[in-house]
């Protein structure tokens, strides 16, 4: 019995060793075959690229792309510029691939629909606008993102409104950053859609439109729209964006009353943005409100007010005396030189000594 059990153990061990050896050999063989297959694919892609470049550089132009995969064509369309890209795009249209890509937008696979949207955007075929617009509301988020990016490269201004509506879609939204980049690529043709989006019912669309509005080529019109919206806006984040926009395009005559009112907003972010905007537009008549903001309860607002006063070149001694008279010498001294607490991320305030230097009171405060 002992000898049989020992023989059985030897047999089991040998069997396991053989199985392990076979598995290792199969794994190494699969890796070798994968490496060889990858090398063949890369060599084929290189040959296809050379073929396309030879076709583009030949004097007798021929639109023969038979056998060249869509992946290679898409990469070349993305990399090429100028005349070569135009020639390759014409070759793609003549080859009938655009029709196939448009049919692929109805595919069951989300990956194929996203790839089709990306290729249609790269080739820039105006006939694909309706397909891209439909894919912006696709059920898969990857398809929506690819379609939104393609809308920016197509250059059709009619897609600007669809992109802005996609931001506010609660069931199938498109990220605001993707939409902003697409609208920026559309250029000045999308200005009217951005101005209309400032009054949109959804706050996300209003916020995106307000942040992008200063890039519109008609600053006076943008200022009027922002001023009108600031009077009725209730969302805090949008009000911050409105103040920032007025600081970029506003004029003291129209923007100053709105920004001065915003200095007394219940939200400290709105007050800080309004103070910075007053300094940017050169609102010299708002120095009283800015001096009053120097003793705001939030350090970020005090920082913005001090920077605005420095930008407006208010007389340092006068500012110091007015601030000291309103706050009291003891409180002013404690505020100007006491250690600072760090504010929220993105609003890191300066040291208290910077406040004192900004209004010219470094030597005027008794420490």
Describe the structure.
It is built from 20 helices and no strands. The longest helix is centred in the first third of the chain and has 56 residues, at 2-57. It is elongated and about 100 Å long. It has helices at 2-57, 70-79, 82-95, 97-104, 110-123, 129-135, 141-154, 159-168, 176-186, 191-197, 203-212, 219-230, 236-249, 252-262, 268-281, 287-292, 299-312, 316-327, 329-337, 352-358. Helix 12 (219-230) runs antiparallel to helix 13, helix 13 packs parallel to helix 15 and helix 18 (316-327) packs across helix 19. Among the domains are: 96-217, Leucine-rich Repeat Variant (Alpha Horseshoe), CATH 1.25.10.10; 219-338, Leucine-rich Repeat Variant. Mean pLDDT is 76; it is low at 329-367. The protein is mainly α.
Report the sheet with the most strands, covering strand number, pairing sense and barrel closure.
none
- Strand fraction band? under 5%
Query: From the alpha-carbon coordinates, what is the Rg to the nearest angstrom?
Result: 32 Å
CATH topology call of the domain at 96-217: Leucine-rich Repeat Variant
Helix run count: 20
User: Which CATH architecture of the domain at 96-217 is right?
Assistant: Alpha Horseshoe
Number of β-strand runs: 0
Residues in helix, %: over 70%
């Amino acid at each position: 019995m002992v000898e049989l059990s020992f023989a059985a153990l030897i047999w089991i061990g040998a069997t396991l060793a053989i199985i392990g050896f076979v598995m290792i050999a199969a794994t190494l063989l699969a890796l070798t075959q994968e490496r060889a297959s990858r090398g063949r694919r890369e060599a084929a892609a290189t040959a296809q690229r050379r073929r396309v470049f030879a076709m583009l550089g030949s004097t007798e132009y021929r639109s023969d792309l038979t056998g060249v995969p869509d992946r290679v064509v898409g990469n070349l369309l993305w990399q090429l510029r100028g005349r070569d890209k135009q020639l390759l795009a014409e070759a793609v249209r003549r080859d009938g691939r655009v029709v196939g890509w448009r049919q692929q937008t109805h595919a069951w696979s989300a990956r194929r629909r996203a790839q089709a949207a990306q290729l249609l955007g790269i080739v820039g075929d105006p006939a694909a606008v309706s397909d891209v617009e439909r894919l912006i509301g696709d059920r898969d988020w990857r398809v929506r993102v690819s379609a939104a990016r393609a809308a920016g490269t197509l250059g059709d201004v009619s897609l600007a409104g669809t992109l802005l509506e996609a931001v506010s879609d609660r069931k199938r939204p498109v990220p605001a950053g993707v939409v902003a980049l697409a609208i920026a690529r559309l250029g000045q043709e999308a200005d009217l859609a951005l101005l209309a989006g400032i009054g949109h019912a959804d706050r996300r669309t209003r916020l995106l439109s307000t942040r992008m509005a200063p890039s519109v080529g008609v600053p006076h019109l943008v200022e009027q729209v922002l001023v009108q919206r600031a009077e009725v806006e209730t969302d805090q984040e949008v009000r911050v964006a409105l103040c920032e926009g007025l600081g970029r395009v506003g004029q003291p005559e129209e923007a100053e009353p709105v920004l001065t009112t915003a200095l007394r907003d219940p939200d400290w972010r709105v007050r800080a943005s309004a103070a910075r905007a007053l300094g940017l537009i050169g609102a010299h008549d708002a120095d009283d409100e800015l001096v009053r903001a120097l003793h705001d309860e939030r350090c970020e607002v005090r920082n913005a007010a001090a920077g605005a006063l420095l930008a407006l070149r208010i007389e340092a001694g006068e500012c110091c005396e007015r601030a000291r008279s309103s706050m009291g010498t003891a409180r002013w001294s404690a505020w100007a030189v006491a250690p600072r607490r760090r504010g929220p991320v993105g609003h890191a305030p300066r040291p208290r000594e910077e406040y004192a230097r900004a209004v010219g009171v470094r030597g005027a405060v008794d420490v």
